[in-house]
Amino acid sequence: MRWLLLALLVIPALEIGVFIWAGGMIGPWWVVGLILLTGVVGVTIAKQQGMETWNRARASMSYGQVPANEIIDGICIFVGAVFLFTPGFLTDIVGFILVLPTTRTPFKIWLQKYIKYMMDKGTVVYRK
C-alpha cells in the first residue's frame, strides 16, 4: 500500500518535470500535440491487440483449452491501455511496452513466474 501511495505522488511529479523539460525544448503546443497523438495511437493499438487476443481466447476455448496466455495478454493490454490513456510521456512508454506484443513478452514471462511463485507460496489459491 505504501508503494502505491508513493507511486501516486512520484509519477505525476516526474511527468510534470518531463512536460516542463520537453516544453522548453520543443514548445508547449508540440508537447500537447504529442500527448494527444500518443494517446490516440496507443488506444488504437490497444483496441486492435485486445480484439486479436479476444479472438485467440475464443478460438482456444472452442477447442476446449483454457486461454491462460490470452488472459495474461488481456491483463497486460488493459493495464497498458490505462497507462496510454493517462497523459504523460513516462506512462506512455510503460503503456506501449505493455500493449505491443514484442515488448509485452518479457513482462508476461515475469508475470507468469510471479503468479506461479504466489501460488506455490499459498497466497493465491487456484481451484477447478
Automatic annotation (TrEMBL):
The chain crosses the membrane at residues 27-46, 67-87, 93-111. Signal peptide: none annotated. It comes from the Bacteria. Keywords: Membrane, Transmembrane, Transmembrane helix. The keyword Transmembrane applies. PANTHER family: UPF0716 PROTEIN FXSA. This is FxsA family protein. The lineage of its organism: Bacteria, Bacillati, Bacillota, Bacilli, Bacillales.
